[in-house]
Amino acid sequence: MKRWILAPEYIWDGISEKPEKGVCFLVEDGKISGKGSLKQCRDSAPDAEIICGEYLILPGFTDAHDHGRGISPTGFGVEDAPLEMWLQDLWKIPPISHYTACYYDGIRLASSGVTTVLHSHNPNSFDNMEDEVIAAARGYLDAGVRCILCPLYLDQNKGIYLEREKFIRSLPEDTGRMFRAGIHDKLYEIEEYFALIDRLRERLKKEISDGMVEIQLHPNGGQWCSDEALLKMKEYALSHEMKIHMHLLETKYQAIYAQKQWGCTFIQHYKNIGFLGPWLSCAHMVWINGEDMDLLKEYGVVPVNNPSSNIRLRSGMFPLRELVKRNIPVGLGLDGCAFDDDQDYLREIRTAFYNMETAGAGSIIPNIIPIKMATVWGSRIADGRLSPGILSPGTDADFVCISLKELYRPYADESAGIVDLLLHRGRRETVQAVFVKGIKIYDKDRDVEKVQKAEKKIAEEISDLRKKNPCQNLAWKKDLISRVERFYKGWEKEYEDYCNCTNCVKKKILV
Q1: β-strand partners of 246
Q2: From the CB of residue 377, how many other CB atoms can be counted at a distance below 10 Å?
Q3: What is this structure's pTM?
Q4: Which of 333, 430, 444, 478 is most enclosed, with most CB atoms within 10 A?
């Protein structure tokens, strides 16, 4: 039995309100087995190796919504734009192998403290999605990171929400023909999707049993998935003790879709049909009102904030302060759209803290909140079955070591709060080491070459793909994007109160 004692300068266990000094943890066979002073831990395990240093130790971070692209769409000429226009341009992304992309992403995530990632799978080929998801899992696992795998399902509204035929009739003949040819709403029936999930669970049985992998059902988004399919997913999830994860209410046009379709919000509609429950987590969740938030709390739904993505794609501001005020746990995800395209999770924590939906007095939230989003709250998307989000006797030893030397560089007073320093100065360079189940998956000093090799491999693979199939400029696509923009501006004229993203205006219709 391997035993060692964690004895850093500071530890935050995910439970206490702030980091503690003079507290140590005993680790045995990958689990936290005790907590106390250094003397108490030594007395209970005199043969244990002591790991000490000028560190702040935190529970491992959970990236609660991502896509495992490896390279951001920006690298392929996809300009940031509102989601409905941006999606029309993703055809430019080459079919990078999912192992390569997820291995590279996994290493970058680990190097910024992430020990679990939720992977929303964008297939290169729906016909080959099973093998692609397995390859994605292998990539993350070889990087040392736990993964929640979410193979997508959709069965409606591909390309345009709700009024698609009207939109197609407005297009020039050639553009309309090309656009229609790319629409594939339902590539397989919901029963075929469940059969896919069954096969994946069987092929990854050991990894699931070991607590390194979880599979969740993944309706791609509210507007892209029928109520009938959602309710069948709920039934399947409950009978198999699984969870459901989806994109929801990312943009104002998705909020307008719900008003057009049902005359109420998505959340209110999902309550009416019986879809809400603790089995559900939802990414983005920008366009929700106070009544929606109360329903999220009542039914135990976990919202996930994606602040960099919400800013880059002009989606709006996540109502973090209002959710915190209601004591609703919130997760945090990079969405593959972090600032600087670097998958730096610590910077995402900072972005979440500062991107408030309100201004002035009363707009500040406690500084421990975004740290909770990254750890104990974020772990709830898998009910803590993977990285537990806390450091407590009986939990797996998933944790990140933050270098105090880097946090204090070039200078900080002794009175400077350690959490404030982490929020203001935390970045990939401050991460010294990361552990999963007590095994070191990243070491800043040791793994430089590993990161460089992974970067070289993905760059070479993409270069080979581009040589075989150069990216072309398709004039009809550019024309299509401008017409999609005009189409949704028409929706704005119908629902003028949705046109301005400031909360005071938005709430006129939403509350």
Answers
A1: 282
A2: 24
A3: 0.95
A4: 333
